[in-house]
Amino acid sequence: MVRQPSWNKTCLKKGTWSPDEDQKLITYIMRHGIWNWNEMPKYAGLARSGKSCRLRWMNYLRPNIKRGNFTREEDETIVQLQKMLGNRWSAIAAMLPQRTDNDIKNYWNSRLKKRVVVENNSVSATTPATEINSGVKSDSDSLFLDTLLDSLIPKLKDFPEPATCTFSPSGSNHAAVVDNTCSMENNFVSSEKCWEIQSFSDNDCCQALSPNSQLWLYEPIYECNSNYDPVDDFWDSPFI
DNA sequence: AAGCGCGACAACCGCCACTCA
DNA sequence: GTGAGTGGCGGTTGTCGCGCT
């Protein structure tokens, strides 16, 4: 059996995302979660490819993303990790909470790479070439990596007790925002105090991720009811 | 004011691995 | 086992703003 091809690719929009498109994507994901990137744009009212939507969400729209203004410490971390891992930007991004691989890659290509080249040139005047970028991790590199990894392993105390929903999502399994102190829009605009999308189980209870939870940064946890029909929900949506 | 070059950043493309029918 | 769909990754290109001439 062959799967049906998704969404007509001939009329897909390209180029810079407009604020309206951003809002549509945010609103849709806030309501329904991420269930299928290729199908999602159709129901979200976006003439974009799934890939484009995924990229936009992952790199710019999802909560808790820090952009620009790299600190000196982050600079050093990126340089060290690039030296050890090479251009494995996703791996490097995993070591830098709130930073995306695309952001790090751009930052490296536009700034850090030049700086490193200059520094290497100045070092190479006094250091044998074989000791530069030899690909062999030094003890200090290993220690650096160990320390970094240790700092990234979440400690139990860092997570508050899971929250429990006190309201009913009207019998639906839709993702929703639990933090009643801010609107959906605010939840994204002020990412610092953001509570994440919740997934509702059958008994209308839910588990919440901590606002500090790194889990959210990599893969939000959604439940998708197999009976859920996005088409029905699309037409019922008050946001569209 | 217009044209040009450059840097920074956003977005796309192609490939690969994995999953599913 | 096979082929199509999907998601993720890294390289590359496109776009925009700014400074210089």
From TrEMBL:
Gene Ontology cellular-component terms listed: nucleus
Coiled-coil positions: none
Myb-like domain sequence ranges: 9-61, 62-112
Classification via PROSITE patterns: HTH_MYB, MYB_LIKE
InterPro entries assigned to the protein according to its UniProt record, in alphabetical order: Homeodomain-like_sf (IPR009057), Myb_dom (IPR017930), Myb_TF_plants (IPR015495), SANT/Myb (IPR001005)
Subcellular location: Nucleus
Major localisation: nucleus
Domain HTH myb-type: residue ranges: 12-61, 62-116
Record keywords: DNA-binding, Nucleus, Repeat
Alphabetical list of CDD domains matching this protein: SANT
GO MF term set: DNA binding
Record-given protein name: Transcription factor MYB14-like
Record organism: Durio zibethinus
